Amino acid sequence: MAIDRQLIVDSLYHGRTTVPNGFQMKLFGDMWIKDHPGVPYDPAKARELIKNSGYKGQTIYYRLLSDYYTLEVATAQVLVEMWKAVGLKVKLDMKENWSQILKNDETRHILNLSNTAFYLDPVGMTWRRLGTQFWGRKEDKYMGKEPMLELPEEFDKLGKILENSTDLKTRRKAIRRMLEICDFEEPALISLHAMTMFYGKRDDINWTAYPAEYMDLTAANLSF
User: Fold this and answer.
1) What is the mean pLDDT of residues 137-154?
2) Pairing with 63, which of 15, 80, 82, 189 sits 20 to 30 Å away (CA)?
3) How confident is the model at residue 144 (pLDDT cuts 50, 70, 90)?
4) Cβ(62)–Cβ(110) below 8 Å
């Protein structure tokens, strides 16, 4: 609630991307919960939550790489100032690789992740990234004995319904409740904005950028 995501989109990206309403995408079609509010920008409420949390001003470390994502460092610097404005002491912790980012020690507090929809359904992103099969919820050499992310049993039961049911009404009810849990009751993450990738080309080159990381430079999409 301390993060003004629209301000980040408008100032750093000149309005050329969007702020999602929760951990979902419009690409989900009938499974996109349009009226889900998502986390609002409410610094007053953020200050109240921090006050009631027992936070004593200790340093919170925010690990990141040097612009692995578009404008990652600039965005992180903005986030640190927004958190500072509501009373959180966050320090950027620059790392060289993902092993350092994920290392399970006393300073693994905040990190960045991209969350691609493998296919156009919440199972392809929301459940894939927050469900029981997500590496962040398992024990391994990076996560340690205590996985990075924990969500309640209700969330996992709903995820199984989402994964196995073919009834649209049932599936929409499940994902709606899952979004309520991971956005407001047991916050798992904050979706900053839709992923951005920018390209430049000469006018005489025929090439179309896809709305994904894949750059198609085959003859089917490139000609001179």
Assistant:
1) 78
2) 15
3) low
4) yes
Q: What is the DSSP letter of 70?
A: T
Q: Which of 191, 190, 199, 197 is nearest to 71 (CA)?
A: 197
Q: Are 90 and 62 in contact (CB under 8 A)?
A: yes
Where does residue 118 rank: exposed (0-12), middle (13-18), buried (19+ CB within 10 A)? exposed
Separation of alpha carbons 158 and 43, rounded Å: 31
CA-to-CA dists, residue 202 to 103, 143, 184, 199, 218, angstroms: 43, 46, 46, 11, 17
Say what the pTM is. Answer: 0.87
> Residue 159 above 70 pLDDT?
yes
Q: What is the pLDDT of residues 72-109, one digit of tens each?
A: 999 999 999 999 999 999 999 999 999 999 888 899 99
Residue 66 burial by CB count (10 A; 0-12/13-18/19+): exposed, middle or buried?
exposed
